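Most newcomers find our protein records easier to grasp once they have seen one. A learned vocabulary of local backbone shapes supplies the integers on the structure line. Here is such a record, shown just as it appears in the course material:
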Amino acid sequence: MKYHPILMSTDMVRAILDGRKTQTRRVLKPQPTLTGGVRIATLAGTGERWPFKCLTYKYFASKCQCPYGRPGDRLWVRESFYVQPDIYRPDKPSPIHYKADEDTGCLEDYVFKPSIFMPRWASRITLEITRIRAERVQDISMKDAIAEGMAGSAWEPLTASPGETTALNPKGKFVNLWDSINAKRGYPWESNPWVWVIEFKRLESE
């Protein structure tokens, strides 16, 4: 069993704490490419090229290693935080505030650091990976969109009009979230990139 860091936005941290988020999708790098009609993936850490035939963890993910680990490994969540200097208790750890907490108090009093800067000791959320698979991002189902933490009515249509996602639809919300994070990185929803689908459960004891 290994521990791996994973970045989560403030809204997604809240969804995890509420028990609404049990999946996350991350871009598979490098993306599989077509060579002679056969989709080829490059094995992580080796550069070896391998036919992209199967999307199960047993056959594919065990070959193209997911950088976030494998089932049974733990993920420690990095989120936006602030360590408050405590001049009254120099012998004790300084209080840590998390942006995702709605009862933090006067948020304007704190200058929160981005999640990328969170050290391991400041992390309060640990997740256990239960399953990993690879798929195209547009293959996400309404059920999986809800498992991604997208609340809303599953009965709303995916699009209200061409190019306009419906705010009440969990899948439409996921499309908007995906593009807000990944479009600028070269992986917009419309390009339908391959992604790692990481399913997890929160470990309350940790």
